[in-house]
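Objective 1.3, modelling of assemblies. Example input:
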Amino acid sequence: MPPAQAPEDPLSIVVSNATVRYRMHAFGQPTLGEYLDGLLHRRRRRSGVRTFDALRNVSLQVREGEIVGVIGRNGAGKSTLLKAIAGVLRPMSGAVEVRGRIVPLLELGTGFNANLTGRENIYLTGSLFGLSRRELAARIDDIIQFSELEDFIDVPIKSYSSGTVARLAFSLATDVDPDVLLIDEVFSVGDEFFQRKSMARMRRLFDESRTIMLVSHSLDLIRFQCTRVIWLEAGSIVRDGEPGAVIDAYRASG
Amino acid sequence: MNVLLDAYRYRYFLFNLVWMGLKTRYRFSLLGLAWTVAHPALHLAILTVVFATINRWNLADYAIFMFSGLVPWNFFSKAVLDATVSIPNSSHYLLKVRTPKLVFPLSATLQALADFCAGFLVLLVLFAALRGPMPASMLFLPISIAIWMLFAAGVGMIFSVVDVLFRDFGHLAGLLLMLLFFGTPILFPADPFLEAGGFRRLLVVWNPMYYFASLFQQPIHYATVPSLAAVGITAGLAAIALVAGVSLYQRFEDRFVYYL
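Predicted structure (tokens):
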């Protein structure tokens, strides 16, 4: 049941029949010895590698300005879906198309290098998001100011607290004008004051009609923030539609 | 998506990777950047004294010969070994953000090039001190550097793909390069082997790294331009390695994430 959308909003994310299959291996991947063994005993190898479909034939379309919440149990494929949309994972079949700059706010600050200063990390990670030197130079003052790190921005971030690192990551990711923002459970950033500020900024991003996909176990947050909710179960979409209805159905299923 | 075009679009990220990598390396040491020059200079001093003493060679003469081969070799070895493990070492990017994978081995090559520049500087100073004015043959060196660099970039890409698919390779690569190093006339001159003929001659003639080493040893130590055969063989190998490396990325880079 696709939600009613204004027909003039252009498509932002198109996922068609995407299947993501992980190879399950005792140690993550075969060693050279196991591989050679597999070559010698082809049949056994084929039956030996167990696979796991984290996404099964998933199709969905998201229009510009939609705020889509993704819910489901642990291991339902929520993060895999976000990774496929972010372009981190190429599905083994099907296609994913996204228009514009994608900025993932997945696990804040993991791309940061502890030996680099806050400023250096802004440049490094910002360029990873696809920003040019000029674009970053124009934004860096805003980013530093929002993170409230003026006094420590030229200190290696290994001396930052984890909350401070998250503040810097949030300020960066939300200041680079993402066309599509992907969020995986990161709403409680920093102390109460910073949380209030970051919620205000999120609301501004929502208002400026950026496309947002948000994974969270906080159903109330999803209900209030999202315009549409997708419920994933075992790698497939169970329901897709208006937040209240989907969340009630999900709750009733447990 | 063409992997080369993709890497080019992310050139500013590549630049940052290289620059930040160099900056952090000596950040917390007292001598800082001076280490990039001090390290090769001390390395040279130790090796020269040890080998010249054992073989009763002329110290000054040997220092120039050995260092002219060792500087590019050290670059190659570092570039290739760092590139080999560059993909698993960048998993914190690759698992979070869509990234052109090729920038990681390339970053290793370029960082090694910075070390090469420091070593090359030491070599030039040493040459001026021990031999005086530089021969015209040394004008050939930019071509030598370019060939070495392209070869190192290509081999680094190939090794990094092999390492992702078979993690054992990271352990093997270092030993492989060590074997190659001692089989290449860098610490010792090639002449006795070439004159001996038979198997010992073949050992040198069939080792591609012999020709790579000569790209530096000839213009610097022997004051002649390298042979056409050496230039042809090395340039050819560099081209093959680059094409193979880029093709491997084109074919395998989408699978990397599943192996990390």
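Chain B touches chain A at residues 9-10, 12-13, 15-17, 20, 23-24, 27-28, 92-99, 165-169, 254, 257-259 (CB under 8 Å).
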